[in-house]
TrEMBL record:
Belongs to the binding-protein-dependent transport system permease family. It comes from Modestobacter italicus (strain DSM 44449 / CECT 9708 / BC 501). Residues 1-22 are annotated as: Disordered. Residues 1-15 have a biased composition (Low complexity). This is ABC-type nitrate/sulfonate/bicarbonate transport system, permease component. Residues 93-281 form the ABC transmembrane type-1 domain. GO terms for cellular component: plasma membrane. The keyword Transit peptide does not apply. Its main location: membrane. One of its GO terms (biological process) is transmembrane transport. The keyword Translocase does not apply.
Length: 288
């Protein structure tokens, strides 16, 4: 008696789609980001050429041409002509960056611990929340006269204004993140015998990291925003002081050059901040 054998077909591996090419996606992102700036430059040139008058009374005839701004930027960086702004970028940029970094670091050192405490403890929130919400709406411009009387002029006044401006978004972001920590994480920490301070450092702080980072990014951006105002407090060098000098001598191309330098410095500092946090949290899916 023979038994029929059923042939077994060899299992063929299923075809899997190739992973998306990251380089192609990045190239597409770059290409999509080009049309709007190019259109902006074109409209800027045409508007200046025809002296357009825009809403809010904006008279484009008083703007410099984009080409004049490019030449001013080259002179500011490399000294292509002999004037008051020649080759000053490498003196102004480090001075401004140091003030922004100092003010931002001080704001972070105060705001993050305070925000964690306010987010987790109702007593701390009740103590500090009224004062924070009372001072938060006061613009930095209103602080300048008082700062001039209390601190005087110079780097300390500038750093104080930057610290004050960066503090509020960082503390509010930290409070929000600390409040949203899942209760199960806190219960697990208590079951493992983690102390109160250990829970704040090892559980609450990492879990609240996305909200803290968002607050820090907003605070860092505000630090660059307030830089020009803060450098009106008698500092001799800096991007903001150069902008005001250009205003005094009615050199509009140099004003725009200073604005561009602040924009680029703010963008790069934001990218650097995100890079630092990606390195710190590379093993945790917290920073995206």
């Amino acid at each position: 008696m023979t038994t029929a054998t059923v042939p077994v077909e060899a299992a063929t591996p299923t075809a899997t789609a190739p992973p998306p090419r990251r380089g192609r996606g990045q190239l597409r992102t770059v290409l999509l980001g080009l049309p709007v700036p190019l259109l902006f430059l074109l409209l800027w040139h045409v508007g200046r050429e025809n002296a357009w008058e825009l809403p809010f009374g904006i008279r484009m005839g008083f703007l410099p041409y984009p080409a004049d701004v490019a030449r001013g930027l080259a002179n500011y960086a490399f000294g292509t002509r002999d004037d008051a702004f020649s080759n000053l970028l490498w003196e102004d940029l480090p001075a401004s960056a140091l003030r922004v970094l100092s003010g931002f670091a001080l704001a972070t050192l105060v705001a993050v611990p305070l925000g964690v405490l306010m987010g987790r403890f109702t007593t701390a929130h009740a103590l500090f929340d009224p004062m924070i919400n009372l001072f938060r709406p006061i613009p930095a411009t209103a602080w300048v006269p008082l700062v001039a009387l209390l601190i005087g002029y110079g780097d300390q006044a500038s750093i104080f204004l930057i610290t004050l401006s960066a503090f509020f978004p960082i503390v509010l972001g930290t409070i929000s993140g600390a409040r949203q920590v899942p209760e199960r994480l806190l219960e697990a920490a208590r079951m493992l015998g983690t102390s109160g301070v250990g829970t704040l450092l090892l559980v609450v702080l990492p879990a609240a990291a996305p909200a803290i980072v968002n607050g820090m990014r907003v605070g860092l951006g505000l630090s660059w925003v307030i830089l020009v105002l803060s450098e009106t407090t008698g500092v001799p060098t800096g991007l903001g002081s150069t902008i005001f000098l250009a205003r005094d001598v009615v050199q509009t191309d140099q004003i725009v050059v200073g604005m561009i330098c602040i924009a680029v410095a703010g963008f790069l500092s934001d990218r650097l901040l995100m890079l630092v946090f990606r390195v710190l949290f590379r093993d945790r899916p917290l920073i995206k």
